[in-house]
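Hi F.,

I've been meaning to write this up properly since the lab meeting, where we talked about keeping a consistent format for the predictions we share between groups. The idea is simple: the sequence comes first, exactly as it goes in, then the structure tokens exactly as they come out, then a line or two of notes. No screenshots and no reformatting. I'm using this chain as the first example so we have something concrete to point to.
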Amino acid sequence: MNNSSNKQKYFKFFLYAVVVILMNIVGITMFFRMDLTQSRIYSLSPASNEVVSTLSEPLSIKVFFSKNLPAPHNNTERYLRDLLEEYASKGGKYFNYKFYDVSPEQGLGGKTDENRDAARDYGIQPVQIRIIENDEVKFKNAYMGLVLIHGDLIEKLPAITSADGLEYKLTTAIQKLNNKVSTYLRLKDKVNIRMYLSSSLNTVAPLIGLDQFTEFGAQVKSIIKEVNDKNLGITTFEHIDLKEKSEIDKIAKTHELMALSWPDIHESSLAAGSGLAGIVLEYKEQNSTIPLISAIELPIIGTTYQVAQPSALKEEISDVIEKMIGINKDIGFLADHGTHQLVPDRFAMMQGRPGGGMQAFNQLLSSRYSIKNINLKENDIPDGINCLVIARPTEPFSDYELFQIDQALMRGTNIAFISDSFNEIIPQQGGFGGPRWEPIDTGLTKLLSHYGVDIKKAYVLDKSSYKQPLSRNQGGGEQAIYFAPVITNEAINTDPDYMDNIKGLVAMQISPLVLNEERIKKNNIKATRLYSSSDKAWLMEGSINLNPMFISPPANEAEFSSFDLAYMLEGSFTSYFKGKKIPEKKAENKESEEKIDEPINAPEKEKTKASALPKGLVAENRLIESSKPAKLFIMASSQMLQDNMLDPEGRSTNATFLLNIIDYLNGEEKIAQMRSKQQTLNPIVQTTPFTKGFIKSFNIMALPALVVVFGFGVLIKRNRRKKTIATRFKS
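Output, unedited:
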């Protein structure tokens, strides 16, 4: 009997041991983790998964991190190891990483010395960190950087001093390296390029000032071939000579290209006809068009025709291709009409005037995008950019320039319009009085009003505002800056993914927006309010004076209200110029007018005046009346772009908000969502004084009382149990 029992015990022990061993093997070969944090901070975002899983060439990461670092840097190293392990599990054989020991404690010479030399060769230098040993504050040099190597390209993160935003930095660096070459290599579908160029235009071209148009087709073919060779042969090309009027009208309407038609011209022995000149690019379900002939209205002169410049055409075709296949990283920035400049005006600063630069904003944008300055007075807006930023224009736009902005939106270019309602005029040196504020009227507001949003000529003041500490000389305490509203979590719309976890903002000199709901509904536009003021806000209209000493909240509670401060509009917009005459392009002087009329490569003697155009010549489909799906962001506070409102690292909520908006306008929703996930601001929910008092009293009085009541309950239960046992044994 005992032998059987012992055998059973040994069998169970053996069985349990086998189960434990198998569970360990499963744990090693089937590794998984569970991230229970609310924002899934320790899990890769969808954007990171997508970027690393699309690697088509090996990517190597060399990490140079000193060992045995004190807190919190040891936690940063641990987080980096876990993060790279997550990347490796998604990247497979194309993702490799290695930690190199660079700890000076290991002694001079040997492998650590070689690793430190390698780190310095890659541009990774030690950083100074503060440590506390034996109740003393000491400083220590430590390596905390990495380098990413992808083919012949190298990116580095020289100083990883915090885990905040680390996934965002790594993913964007990998994306930057991987984007172009890997996208081309894994591209399965070709970009189809069709050039619609009617041979019938050769006969009418000299009559409209395009004398060398017969050579233009060969130039375009050569440009497209050059673009194809540069882009690893990802395009196909077809030249289509449209001759029939019905075919020309159909293609012109489908692709919104300008078509020309003319009657019999007896003096030139030219028969009636029609023609079309344009390029259509198609990739999967996307399509884009580039006109080869454009018509411009000039004062006095009338209609004049131009062909596309070959140098600009080459760049535009390349940009459109990159935009269609998803690797375009160009962003347009309006650089004239008195807009804020990305770099400060040094000359103005030397004269004691504000430089007006946005260095932090420029640094944040440049880390993700290639910025192209758009001079609207000289050139049109190219189609190859995803997004155009218009930051605080102060000079009026001509109708033709408004037409260019409107048509850019119609072509699907997303626009971020960040304006100011007033311009601060500072007295010159020796002048008396303080600054004055003059209303800004550029003409852009009528476009925005047509699209569905009006900007009021007023500033929003708010009781929920920034509090400025006062010095002892000023009496101490703090002063409310009412024109700098603090936007709390309750006033922020976190429903869009790119707004998730944005729980606080600080605005400055911001104007309210009024949504035209009837127009929005009529045009089927999706309008998303992004944030608003508190319900304790009021307006400063008419005479503007932002001296905090002279601003106080209104005594009448009825004057308080909540105001919408930022909107994102999405959908197919209707052109402001629909049903209107196409505006004329303003000519600055006689010389510029002649240059406008000049056809490409035409000698001076061959210029043709637009006034000599044949009668009856008609240019059709010059106006795009309804847009492709597009996005329009509107916010009336350019002060939020200034250096005092942003941090160059992009960790503040203001910086995160603006970068997320730009990413969303550029089709990088997943990147914006990932950045929001790592935004750590989590302010306490504001409560009323009564609620605060109730919670405080409950914690002081009610909780101890509950403990006492619970103790009495336990005591009563024990006494009952004792009595029950005693009664049972007595019987």
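Notes:
The chain has 18 helices and 30 strands.
Residues 689-730 form the longest helix (42 residues).

If this format works for you, I'll send the rest the same way.

G.
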